[in-house]
Amino acid sequence: MDWMGTTRTEQIWWTTTALLVALLAATVALPAFDRRLIDGATVWAKPMKFELSLALHFATLSLIAGALDTGWRHGILLQGVAWASAACALFEIAYIVLQAARQEPSHFNLSTPFHVAMYAAMAAGAVVITAAAAIVGLAALLDDASRLGPATRVGAAIGLIGGTVLTLVIAFRMGGALSHHVGVEPAGAPRMPLTGCSLAVGDRRAPHFFATHMMQAVPLAGLGLDRLLGKGPAVAAVLLVAAAWVVLTLALFRQANAGVPLMRWPS
Prior knowledge:
Elements: H1 8-29, E1 37-38, E2 41-42, H2 45-66, H3 70-74, H4 76-101, H5 113-142, H6 150-177, E3 181-182, E4 202-203, H7 205-228, H8 231-257
Antiparallel strand pairs: 1-2, 3-4
Helix pairs in contact: 1-2, 1-4, 2-4, 2-5, 4-5, 5-6, 6-7, 6-8, 7-8
């Protein structure tokens, strides 16, 4: 074991995080030189979003795994999950960057047999990446000897497992529809800054964002509550935070499925 006491599992996820951050730093500069667009946004928008999101994902998993008991930290289960999820993430980023460089969409692109196969491979990879969070969350739930505070432990378990379930449900709904949108978005329709969510039709990316980042928000809430409150009140409070997050995500999902935009844009 190297890296000042980190395990191989943590090293795999921290290395992947560092690679993604380095790629993000390089990708952020590209729109200044490459003005090409896909669907009205820079071709490099999707790589940047995925690099940032996956970096947060793996940093979260490594931090929580690092607080588990020795048996879990050194176990073959988490190490296997780390290798599989890291490999899938690097594959997905490589393909997304390749498609951006070719000015072609990476998602919902079934234009050739190659693109069909890659879309299916990306879907399988996304399941592996997302399910890794549920496995770490289950480990946190089962590990009575972890160094996680009580609210942090509950937040990690609910945030990672709940976030996995919500993310997969919403992602497969989008994948089956072959579109983020519910309804036909008019040409030049307004979109939210940064996220690109449509302000003209329903957009499932909004609930997908909240589902995915439940994996960071709820454990972080637990960490803060552990420092502010006693054991009982902190656990109760993080349960309320988790419940509110789930309700908000499902409400946004229902709204998007009804074809209603996240915000009404003044006409």
